[in-house]
């Protein structure tokens, strides 16, 4: 989502004002830092980066802070780094051209509605189009700062989404990645009187776009994975057979404290149903270790869910207390050393599971969209998300080809027979 926001920032500046892009900060007239605030680390990095850019930039060049940390810290960024010219929060991206001309300006309105704004066009990848389908988030996961930085959830009207994808396809995109904090909650609220459709219907409509080959989406919420959604996912051939199912914890007690809205049993049942309905599906997840009050038994339950589901992709994090969140006030903080130990155990289990899952891919044939080249290899993602390499003399960037996998090697599958 941040990558898409950056594309929008650049698109607006280059189309509606006279900006072009440079990789040399010392030559820039405007430097934007787009920020995340989900965990604490990127926030501290922001201020050291700001100091660095301030030292090397041209004296008249402007410096702006955008994104979630801008929403969260607002005016206080100007106090701590007085040389910053403006602060532009997530969900206020469309104001970039205006704010870039002002000084000491702060635009962080959480109620600002960009769901019907027609952003200018810019895409960093010629093959994959990132497309927002909703903004904000209505959940209240107790560890999460996102609802406080991106505001409440509004769906983008289906017509805007479809038109945007058609334009991207006309320009050569083969794959679309639909973006939202809760994509499968799509359609709950629009800002205008649109025809109301839900996520499965949106997927069906998008899949009818001619020339579009693959559909991905990020992130769905396990709570909204009902049968109808799983049916469309299973049967629509354009939808890539990789599902992100953010678990967060395998303990029902911790899930309740996190306010995730589902139990361990619900998650396990949905994951099993998904594996049964979609042979060959890969499942990714996000897990937080050392949430306040997480006992050894709770943690063991998370490992147990991992053993049962055998996720092919795991993003794992140590709990990071965030301002404005309920969990930041909860007792039972876990010692940092213990948190690191739990993370290491979890990651070791995942490595072991992943190498087994990848070895099991040898001999299969995968449909790959090649997106980059490294020396004699072209690289791309298979329909089930694995990174796949093939010899560059047999396939080219921008092609979708079938590849027979001959070996698994350090995070990638390698194929030599390309059809
Ligand atoms: N809307 C998405 C998540 C966006 S944040 C979803 O619900 O899946 C991405 C991931 O960051 C979350 O899934 C969670 O695992 C992690 N995360 C969020 N807040 C965190 C915190 N305070 N500490 C550690 N990890 C966190
Ligand atoms: Fe954060 Fe939960 Fe919303 Fe995801 S669903 S953005 S974790 S509050």
Main attributes?
Rossmann fold; 17 strands; 4 domains; binds S-adenosyl-L-homocysteine; four-stranded parallel beta sheet; binds iron/sulfur cluster; alpha/beta; Transcription Regulator spoIIAA; 419 residues
Sequence stretches where pLDDT stays below 50 over 5 or more residues = none
Query: What's the total helix number?
Result: 13
CATH class of the largest domain: Alpha Beta
Task: Give the biggest sheet.
Answer: 5 strands, mixed, barrel
Number of domains: 4
Round the Cα radius of gyration to an integer and report it.
22 Å
- List the strand order in the largest sheet: 13-14-15-17-16
Question: How far from one another are the termini?
Answer: 34 Å
Instruction: Report the mean per-residue pLDDT as an integer.
Output: 96
Bound molecules: S-adenosyl-L-homocysteine, iron/sulfur cluster
Number of strands: 17
Helix coverage percent of residues?
25-40%
Describe what you observe in this structure:
This protein is α/β, with parallel strands linked by helices. It has four domains: 2-107, Methylthiotransferase, N-terminal domain (Rossmann fold, 3-Layer(aba) Sandwich); 123-240, Transcription Regulator spoIIAA (2-Layer Sandwich); 244-360, Transcription Regulator spoIIAA (2-Layer Sandwich); 365-418, OB fold (Dihydrolipoamide Acetyltransferase, E2P) (Beta Barrel). The chain is 34% helix and 22% strand. The chain is built from 13 helices and 17 strands. It has helices spanning 2-16, 41-56, 68-73, 76-80, 96-99, 146-150, 158-170, 199-207, 227-235, 252-258, 264-277, 296-309, 336-359, and strands at 30-35, 62-67, 86-89, 105-107, 128-132, 134-135, 154-155, 175-179, 214-218, 242-244, 282-289, 313-318, 365-374, 377-382, 387-391, 400-409, 412-418. The strands form five sheets. The protein has a five-stranded mixed beta barrel. A four-stranded parallel beta sheet has the order 1-2-3-4, with helices on both faces. Strands 5-8-9 form a three-stranded parallel beta sheet, covered by helices on one side. Helix 12 (296-309) links the parallel strand 11 (282-289) and strand 12. Helix 8 packs parallel to helix 9 (227-235) and helix 12 (296-309) runs parallel beside helix 13 (336-359). It is globular. It starts with a helix and ends with a strand. The structure holds S-adenosyl-L-homocysteine (SAH) and iron/sulfur cluster.
